[in-house]
Amino acid sequence: MSEENVVFPQKILKKFILLYKDLPCLWDKECPAYKIKMKRHDAITKMTELVQEYDPSATRVHILRKIESLRACVRREYKRVQESRRKANCEEEVYVPNLWYYDLLSFIFKNEAPEPARSPIPTAETEEEEDDDCQVFDSQSVDYSNDFNETGNMVEADDVSTISKRYLTFEPESTTSKVKRQFTEVEDEYDAIGINVAAKLRYLPNNMRVLAEKLINDVLFQAQTNSLTSTTAIMTPDPFKSDAN
């Protein structure tokens, strides 16, 4: 399992969402245990153990990211449903969510009293695996920052920033930058690639990040000048040969 994505077969994702529903301390702000760190910590442990039955390499951070990804996707569809419902002249004109798990996860809107919407029937393709098509987070996502650090261990609130924001940044942000980054729309595959590259760059040490950015820019320059070929490659000098000379 990669650091950027968590991909589950649909049957696992169904269990994942149903377990999440059974753990209101993770999503229901009216739940008495919602503000109790240990309760939330134990809840994430249960969800991690569930996923580890499918993929032993799954970590708590993967679980937190998956939760935020699912919530963001469903909320975006929810907003579209509500907006179309306000404009529709009849029920047939109401927007139908594209997410097969929309109804399954709609319990997160229980305090908003959402009207039900039909979810599409899963295709054979979605039956095989669930891709993180929506890797963006909205301003109403649950904040797990008071509970965990990047390794999934419990920490104090001042030590980390919001987990949902860290999925895009992986480093502490100022309040101003958080506001600016509350919601970022992924327009096409190139935006998704950019987010993926940015996430990897933010994991790197400063010196490695600078070098990686330089090489990326060099490749783009070569591409813009039509100089790239199928044999283009990065050549790293052999230090032993250099010493021999």
From TrEMBL:
Residues 15-113 form the MADF domain. It comes from Bombyx mori. InterPro entries: MADF-dom. This is MADF domain-containing protein.
